[in-house]
Amino acid sequence: MAELKRVKDRDPEERLAWRRALLKRKGERKRDHNRLVRVRIASLKRTFRKAHVAGDESKSTETLKNLYKSLDKAAKSGVIHKRTAARRKSRAARLLRKNQAT
Predict the structure, then answer these.
(1) Helix or strand (DSSP H, E) at 49
(2) Which residues contact 38 (CB under 8 A, 6 or more apart)?
(3) Whole-prediction pTM value?
(4) What is the pLDDT confidence band of residue 82, given thresholds at 50, 70 and 90?
């Protein structure tokens, strides 16, 4: 069995390779997570628009709450910018107000 070396006991080249591999794995995990969050937001937006077009006010408001929550969490974790989240929330609310006024 191969002997495991601690990072501090490795050569500089070996240390660099270890660090690059670590960052690559970390980036892959982060990319997968960000993609899942974006897909969830897109799905909620789609559901909200369909409920809006159908005129289902209760489903629209419920989906809007979930959309707000998802956008805030995505902005907090850095998946999207906080102003992007605010803009999307504003547009969704404006669409809902337009539906209620009609």
Answers:
(1) helix 12-54
(2) 74, 79, 80
(3) 0.79
(4) very high
- Mean per-residue pLDDT over the chain, rounded: 91
pLDDT at 100 over 90: no
First to last CA, the chain: 73
What SS3 state is found at 90? helix
Q: What is the DSSP letter of 9?
A: G
Report the C-alpha gap between 88 and 42 in whole angstroms: 11
Helix (H, G, I), strand (E, B) or coil at 81: coil
Residue recorded with tokens 């789609």: 46
Selection from 63, 57, 8, 95 nearest residue 71 by Cα: 63
Pull the structure tokens for residue 87: 């803009």
Is there a contact between 63 and 45 (Cβ–Cβ < 8 Å)? no
Give 34's Cβ-side CA count (13 Å radius).
13
Which residue, among 92, 90, 99, has the nearest Cα to 55 in the 3D structure? 99
pLDDT at 63 over 70: yes
